[in-house]
Amino acid sequence: TGYMTSGKSTIGPILANVLGWDFYDLDQVIEIELGKSVVEIFEDDGEDFFRDYENKTLIRLSELDNVIISLGGGTISNRNNFDVIKKNGKLVYLKVSPDVIYKRIKNKIDRPLFRDLVLSENSEDAFLDKINNHLQDRLSYYEKADITIDTDATRIGVTVDKLAKQIKRMINANN
């Protein structure tokens, strides 16, 4: 888990490859199954529909063994999703600062929650206010992660190596 642009979709498949596991990007699975982008799902069907479908998809994927599942940015803030994750696996939080998030999203229109801000060319303060509010709402879930790693300035390869070692230690400790 982690806020949008924290590196979930980049780090996840590399980590899965290093571990010899399968990788699923929750948003991509939903997009493929429904035949439209997350932005289109939000626009056509609404956030409630998306969140319900997201929960059902997460439950299905979490029943698989040896998988890395990259969660959508808001997946963690649903208590049902959080319970599914903690019951069936380990939660890894890719932590990123609000300033870095802003730099990564300020021009992206494929992020439903920020699309209006980007299109209306809002100020950096408007973005940071929204980012900080989201982070605050999700903080109680992020703080319960089994592993937390900062992705602000760490190279992807270093991050993957650290995560792989920690996950292997967890697996060995449980055997």
Describe this protein's structure.
The chain is mainly alpha-helical. 61% of the residues lie in helices and 9% in strands. The chain has helices at residues 8-19, 26-34, 38-45, 47-62, 79-88, 98-105, 115-119, 124-142, 156-174, and strands at 22-25, 67-70, 92-95, 147-150. It is globular and about 50 Å long. It starts with 7 loop residues before the first helix and ends with a helix.
Question: What's a quick, concise take on this entry?
Answer:
61% of the residues lie in helices and 9% in strands. The protein contains 9 helices and 4 strands; from the N terminus they run αβαααβαβαααβα.
Overall, the morphology is globular
Residue stretches low in confidence (pLDDT < 50, at least 5 long) are none
Compressed to H and E, one letter per element, the order equals: HEHHHEHEHHHEH
* DSSP helix fraction: 55-70%
Give the amount of beta strand, in percent. Answer: 5-15%
Structural class call reads mainly alpha
- Determine the number of helices (DSSP H or I, runs of at least 4 residues): 9
